[in-house]
Amino acid sequence: MSQCDRVCEPASWPLNCLGTMQHQEFKNFRKSLKKTQEEMARLLGISVKAVRSYEQGWRTIPAHAERQLLFLTAKKAEILKPAKPCWVVNKCSETLKAMCPAWEFQAGSLCWFINGTICKGLIHKDWREKIEICKQCKAFPKILKSMMNAPDSRSEPTRDFQNKPSATTSLK
After folding, report:
1. Phi then psi for 38, rounded to 5 degrees?
2. Contact 75, 159 (CB under 8 A)
3. Banded pLDDT at 79 (limits 50, 70, 90)
4. List of residues 6+ apart from 167 with CB closer than 8 A
5. Nearest-CA neighbor of 134 among 59, 60, 66, 78?
6. CA-to-CA distance for 150 and 90, rounded, in angstroms?
């Protein structure tokens, strides 16, 4: 059990347990997966109240929920097997590859998901630092990057997993 899981109140979580995802990004990802708040709560192993609190911005989204949401989206979109692994895209040296878990486990399409990866020659201290660097990386899945940077989904079109535009209905 992690330190984050042992503490009940998010306000008392250590900084490394908190994610970087904003409330609207969380909602956009849930909607792209075509899940209700209840279904998303079951998938993430959290309460419906927590999902609602994340979407309203009342609670900070914890790193473990952010990571799982990104993974589920990537899996659903079938984007986990890019043409080139991260170490090829980033032209990593043999020394860096030998120290990196993404290379060790041959998971070049999941480097953004694996803690302890060595990007730009640095081992990241926590998820918050890591995901911010990953979002800027050429190996980070483009669909995840576009969804993380998407504005409020009530007024902007979204994309389905075949990269075809789909209209959204205004909720105003």
Report:
1. -65, -45
2. no
3. low
4. 157
5. 66
6. 25
Residue burial 118-131, b: 16+ Cβ < 10 Å; e: rest:
bbeeeebeebbebb
How far apart CA 148 and CA 104 sit, in angstroms, is 28
Q: What tokens appear for 141 in the block?
A: 């899945």
Look-up of token digits 């306000």? 11
The structure tokens 């849930």 sit at 30
Instruction: Please answer whether residues 87 and 102 qualify as being in contact, where contact means their C-beta atoms are separated by less than 8 angstroms.
Output: yes
Q: Domains (ranges, CATH) in the chain?
A: 3-76 (1.10.260.40), 86-140 (no CATH)
Q: Tokens standing for 160?
A: 């389905």
Residue type at position 33: L
* pLDDT per residue as tens digits for the range 4-28: 433 334 444 344 445 678 889 899 9
Backbone angles phi, psi at 119, to 5 degrees: -110, 135
Q: Are 18 and 129 in contact (CB under 8 A)?
A: no
Task: Give the integer Cα–Cα distance in Å for 154 and 96.
Answer: 43
3-state secondary structure of 94: helix
- The rounded distance, in Å, linking the Cα atoms of 32 and 11 is 28
